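Hi X.,

You mentioned you wanted examples for the new student's onboarding notes, showing what a folding record looks like when two proteins sit in one file. Here is a clean example. The first protein comes first, with its sequence line followed by its structure tokens.
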Amino acid sequence: MPDMVTIGECMIELFSDQPIESADTFERSLAGDTFNILVAAGRLGTTTGYITRLGNDPFRNYLTLAFESENVDTSQIQIVPGFNAAHFVSINANGDRDFVYYRANSAPTTLNPSDINPSYIASSKILHCSGIAQAISKTSRAAVLEAAKIAKKNGVMVSYDPNYRYQLWDVNEARCAMEEIMPFTDIFLPSAPADSKILFDTEDENIVLDLAKSMGVETCVITMGENGALVSDQKDTFHLAPYNQNKIVDTTGAGDAFKGGVIHGILSGKSLRQSAYIGNIMAGLTIQGRGALGAMPTGQEVYEIYETISI
């Protein structure tokens, strides 16, 4: 059984470096917040498993083979009638990224509590959940909560990334979903200001930290993009500047890489500070290439740098 289990949605990604309205070709990949974090931890050496639903469209085999290539346990993935979610990513005239999503009523949105195997969750060491998995449908939100309850009941750690997306739901729904899962959360992984401004009415990461701890969460990792991260548990609280030695190519998936690295470190028995440094290196290497997964480094690459850093 895998040490780390995540639950959520993995989409087909179609990328172009041209604006969508004029692009002739798109490069195929795959992405999803919980899957990205799973892959980051897996490449560092953590055993992983994924809970989701896949549609039986032509992309099914591509997704399944991609999961297996990352050594992800797929025993809890259900194949159902329907289509797999997809999104287009392009570079607009201003150099920023544009996203167009096709996910409504896709196979992952039909995920429900019956897909949660209690013994599978109970045998793991950590369950990772996200706000996106809660947002894609009411049944998926119920499945996430059920999984978190099972984990807590069986002494399995729960990590939670609220990952607010305005395209999926309104602020009140997102706050309610966060509040319902926080009592089961051991590691809280929000971003500031993207999550904090919406969910906590503040851009101040220190206020977010205080509020999260008042809700009973012991470990918080608040990512802040180019401003690094604020990391805290009962023993240590510190700011961490971003790790980056080269030109930034694409920041897609940097936060996921960081969080996956932190989770891997914790599961490996390292201190929170050591785990944060691993995540920091993971993110710093990821942004040196294109795509959330394409540039994500191997464990060997990360640990070669980690061993040279004084912590």
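Then the second protein repeats the pattern, sequence line and then tokens:
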Amino acid sequence: MGIVTKLNFVNFSNDFNNSKIVIFQKNVATSYDELAIAWKTIENCGVGSTHPFDYPWDISVNAIDSFGNHTRKLLAAPGEAFEIKLGRSGYILVPSHTPAACSQEVEVLNTLARGSIYVGVYRNNKLIALKNNIVPKEKAVFRFNPSIWIGVASDIEQGQEINSAIFSSSNTEIPLLGIAEADIEMRGGGAGLTSYPYSFNLTNVCYL
């Protein structure tokens, strides 16, 4: 078991619309604006209530083939590379003999003769990133900053891609490097002239 940061969401807002909170990360290894995945959602957390959750620093990867089969998940550290290949009983995911091209990235190469794959990345066994249609001889590349993004959204479920059209502009990057425990306080909201934009801030921080 690797390092785990313990977080506690605290609703100090003026929101009485029972808004849904969405937490996600961004794959910064891509050169284009890739859709993020809703890693965690917080629902029905009333004003004055809290919601504790863990952020494990370990991630794992797997591959999904065109038949809907999922390979087993493998722990993946920055700098490691993996290959999807045809084994004796079907497709398998195995560590590569060569490391990733960048020491901060995780790579998954499709070595199949034919057939595209999807590659998923998981944190705490929950999907946090997904690369679609990786064709033979191409690879999926992932790198995450030591931070999470948090915001208010609607019509989004855990594990779904976050469409920017339904995501609130009130989303904030929360840095987690070196943090053992912290509260994430949500403020703002409300109605009429007394309303303010939503804000999210780290408080009560304990460092590693």
